[in-house]
Every structure is written in structure tokens, then in C-alpha cells.
UniProtKB/TrEMBL annotation:
Transmembrane segments: none annotated. PANTHER family: TRANSPOSASE INSF FOR INSERTION SEQUENCE IS3B-RELATED, TRANSPOSASE INSO FOR INSERTION SEQUENCE ELEMENT IS911B-RELATED. GO terms for biological process: DNA integration. This is Integrase core domain. Signal peptide: none annotated. GO terms for molecular function: nucleic acid binding. Residues 1-102 form the Integrase catalytic domain. Gene3D superfamilies: Ribonuclease H-like superfamily/Ribonuclease H. It comes from Frankia torreyi. InterPro entries: Integrase_cat-core (IPR001584), RNaseH-like_sf (IPR012337), RNaseH_sf (IPR036397), Transposase_IS3/IS150/IS904 (IPR050900). Pfam families: rve_3.
Length: 112
């Protein structure tokens, strides 16, 4: 994970448990939860997981949990972030948009 990554979720019991928060902390991630009763607060996460399920999960039968995890990791890291064009990003990949953002940043000169 990149430093200071934020993992956003709803307020489901699994996302508010101590074990979940310890796992996030172990991997350097910060938790973020949506407001109770505000359906659009978590819209980006809901959209992503809907896409993941429709494009991958519902199309396969996984023989093991490990196989499912591997397929999902590959989908996210290889396809979704590096190859899949996103209409909300002007039909670019997230990787390309991140690259454009990072190369557009200039360092701030130190004060004399």
C-alpha cells in the first residue's frame, strides 16, 4: 500500500471491529467510515465494489478462498488500475491520471 492510504467503508460491524482496525494499522492504512443514513456518502466505494462484482466475481466460481483473493488482487492491480479506462477520468486509467497528477506537482522552494 502507498503511505497514508485511506480505506473507506460503511459502518458495518466488520468495518468497526478492533481486529479490522488493527489490520489496517498493520498495513499503514487509515480507516474512514461514511455517515450513518447518508446513502451517497459511500457512493464511490459502492460503485467500485459493484463494478468488481459485475466484471469479475459473478463471472467465476472460485475453488478456494485463496483463488478468489488472487483473482481479485489481479483484477484491481493489473486490470482496474492499469488497463481499464474510466469514463469519470476522461477515459484514462487511474494509473495514468495519478502519473499526470504526480508529474504536475512542483516542489516548493525553501524560504531564504
Amino acid at each position: 500500500l502507498t503511505p497514508d492510504v485511506i480505506f473507506h467503508s460503511d459502518r458495518g460491524a466488520q468495518y468497526t471491529s478492533d481486529a479490522y482496525h488493527r489490520t489496517l494499522s498493520k498495513h499503514g492504512a487509515r480507516p474512514s467510515v461514511g455517515a450513518t443514513g447518508v446513502c451517497w456518502d459511500n457512493a464511490a466505494a459502492e460503485s467500485f465494489f459493484g463494478t468488481l462484482k459485475n466484471e469479475l466475481v459473478y463471472r467465476e466460481i472460485y475453488p478456494t478462498r485463496r483463488a478468489a483473493r488472487s483473482a481479485i488482487a489481479e483484477y484491481i492491480e493489473v486490470f482496474y488500475n492499469r488497463q481499464r479506462l474510466h469514463s469519470t477520468l476522461g477515459y484514462h486509467t487511474p494509473e495514468h491520471v495519478e502519473h499526470l497528477y504526480l508529474t504536475s506537482q512542483t516542489s516548493i522552494p525553501e524560504a531564504a
